[in-house]
């Protein structure tokens, strides 16, 4: 009977009390806590959730975030710069890139302070309580689900473009995209997704390289084709403001990967390496965005 009571008591330990006692320490310290031991009984028993294994290196993190940020929307950056003007576009692109890097650093500090921060909701619970936890979860995951619709539409249109000779209906192309994506959705950890992310980055980088080679090969024809370079927006007045503001929104959306930072840190072997990954992928992303724009 005493053993049964002890087991029950162990299962009801709050999540925070079991995790806050664990401090992140350098890997070379023999007395350091094995970060994989975060999968305690009390944490696992909390609504059946089991934290992922900490096996991800910082290089894998680079692949995960770059795959999330660099997508088909990058080919629309030149048109965005045309609407805003290259001077304003370049200023906003670099400025928000630096702000994104700083926000990633702040999230890393929070994750190291509240080591139960697997998601934004967990952080909100630790900092502001249960109400803010649910408010944060609703906002963040509503954003994710709505963004998935955008990605699915892009995938369906890609199928239509690749098989243009068959004139496939958008609905059928969407079903085909779902059939292709469903097996990939069975991947359960970001560490495993990082390898798919590497393949994704290689494919989109190859596409961008081919487009840039084509653009530079016709560089001498830009005058005959009527290509111009404007430092400021072409339109003025309310219409010009709305066009430039819409374009600015596209540039800001290009840096929308913060929603995965905490989940990625929660799978890292050593979360202290996240700033290293952050500096690498943000530098690469800003350079790729500027180059392709």
Mean of residue pLDDT values: 77
Number of helices: 13
Count of beta strands? 0
Strand content: under 5%
Question: How would you sum up the major sheet?
Answer: none
Distance between the termini: 70 Å
Structural class: mainly alpha
Percentage of residues assigned to helices: 55-70%
Order of helices and strands: HHHHHHHHHHHHH
Low-confidence stretches: 1-46
Rg over C-alpha atoms, rounded to the nearest angstrom: 23 Å
The geometry reads as globular
Describe the structure.
It is a single chain. By secondary structure, the protein is an all-alpha fold. Helix content is 66%, strand content 0%. It is built from 13 helices and no strands. Helix 7 packs antiparallel against helix 8. The protein is globular.
What is the element layout, followed by pairings?
Elements: H1 2-11, H2 15-19, H3 41-44, H4 58-69, H5 77-84, H6 86-113, H7 120-128, H8 130-162, H9 170-184, H10 190-217, H11 237-253, H12 261-265, H13 274-292
Tell me briefly what this model is.
This protein has 293 residues and is mainly alpha-helical.
For this entry, give a set of tags.
293 residues; mainly alpha; 13 helices; 66% helix; globular; disordered N terminus
